[in-house]
Amino acid sequence: MLIEEADIQVNDVFLDAGSGVGNVLAQIALQTQAFRVVGIEIQRDLAARGMELIASRASRFPHLLKISVVTADIRNIAEGSDTVISADPDSKLAQPSSLISSATRLFSHDTVFGEDVVLAMRALCMKLHHLRLVALATRV
User: Fold this and answer.
1) Which domains, and CATH codes, for the chain?
2) pLDDT value at 82 more than 80
3) Cβ-contact 18, 108 below 8 angstroms
4) CA–CA gap between residue 118 and residue 50 (Å, rounded)
5) CA angle at 49 for the pair 67 and 17, rounded to the nearest 5°
6) Residue-wise pLDDT tens digits, 97-131
7) Neighbour count for residue 134 (Cβ, 10 Å)
8) What span, in angstroms and rounded, lies between the C-alpha atoms of 88 and 13?
9) In this structure, what are the phi and psi dihedrals at residue 5, rounded to the nearest 5 degrees?
10) Which pTM value belongs to this model?
11) Sign of the C-alpha dihedral, residues 138, 82, 69, 33?
12) 8 A C-beta contact, residue 109 and residue 26
């Protein structure tokens, strides 16, 4: 239902804050026309494992190559992000800040986030000038 309501088009950049192993990222990459699919995940090991699984399926499902994950703490995102992990080993990795700032659609299942993270999410949304749709599990 979210996918249909989001109306993701070929020029959209989808951002999943708290992307975990990338289930939502893979679904969006496979079922929409999104230009790029980006995750933010604080747990580097979790993000790396998810991207390993996604990359291992990319030869069969090339749309998965649109996925990148920024490993960072959303509370400190303005200070710079640590690493970008891409499903495409041949891609020239964009700077974490440019991946995030280009987002046009944002999703987060943020019910497990602490209040400080929810406030950081709100601040991030205010800075994303291209953002046209935000889907959160909690109210902002």
Assistant:
1) 2-136 (3.40.50.150)
2) no
3) yes
4) 24
5) 50
6) 778 889 999 888 877 788 898 888 888 888 888 98
7) 18
8) 16
9) -65, -30
10) 0.86
11) positive
12) no
Q: Which residue carries 């991207």 as its tokens?
A: 51
Tokens read off for 127: 């800075």
DSSP letter for each residue of the chain: -HHHHHT--TT-EEEEET-TTSHHHHHHHHHS--SEEEEEES-HHHHHHHHHHHHHHTTT-GGGGGEEEEE--GGGGGG--SEEEES-TTS-PPPHHHHHHT-SEEEE-GGGS-HHHHHHHHHHHHH-TT--EEEESS--
Q: Which residues contact 90 (CB under 8 A, 6 or more apart)?
A: none
Query: Which amino acid, 43?
Result: Q
